[in-house]
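Researcher: Here's a chain I'd like modeled. Treat it as a single chain, no partners, no ligands.
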Amino acid sequence: WSLLEDKTVHILDMNENYLRLVNFLADASANLPEFMSGSMQVFGEKTVIKKDAIYESLVKDWEGDDKVEVYLSVGLPALGDLSRKLFKDHLPGGRWENTTQEMRQKCSGTQKHNKFSESVFGFLDQLLRKKPNISVLSSEAYVMFTANKTKQWLESKDENKQQRLVTLACRDMNKVRENFKTRKLEILQKQQQMLREKMEKVEELELKRVARLQGFTDKIIYYGLWQSIETVDAALRETETRTEQKEALKAQMNFRKHVLKQTPPKTVPEYDRVLLFSKIENNKTKDLSVEELSENVKKLVQHAFTIADNKASEVSGEHFPLLVGKTVSHKFHEGDEVVWYRGKVISQVMPSHW
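Model: Modeled as a single isolated chain. Structure tokens:
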């Protein structure tokens, strides 16, 4: 803080001090006895040390030093890691490592800390507590009058000059209010524009999501949802090309993953790769074959029946129409012939009032 508050130290000159701090914490972690004795100085000759009774008490020997050493062995490396993250832009390789003279001149007035802004927020908080109904413009005037030390500046003028300045300020009051209203309106318009853009973006993402799910649904309508191992084998036999077989298998997996939200079975090896279309082989990505995709689809089919059985055993209640896990018959008309198919309910969309 002594270096940060020193106005003769440029903000870019703090690069060296931040690097010294990071290196010091690393050295102190490796040399705890020297650190505890006070012989190590973080900034070398620039280190400000107030050798009072507290300092003497901290550096002298104590019967609990062994415990302190353990705590420091954990705390100092953590502080070192934190410092490297906080000051990364000022350390070697950071964005402010190499700067031009023009940049130094440009940021010569840049504060090295945020004490002033924090003091402004503190003053504003106190002002709002004392005057809860104060307007924004008036609170700005209070803050600026206090922070800029306008009262002291005004009192340094002679009486005539003071009266003339106050008169000019009163005369410009209406103009200041109009400018404030204009600025407030501009801020409101920008906020509304940002809100509209955000809503449009959310709407666009939702439309893309719905269109994506619609695409998965369209494909499953075309291929049908395969709900048994026999159906998988039969559908693959009826498909002419291996490319079409892959598309059909991917459609099954996409529909189960994104529409039915089915998770892969954790009881099978490498369960987290069951819903993937590729694998890593010799550090290269390789597409799964039809046989591999088929095996994964069969695992998902079998797992869906397990989920259905578990849900059927767990869910109860007289108001819950329990269909999950049940076997149902479907009637289809194929020309003049009526064909019955038997299937098992693996999931159910519940009405919102249940």
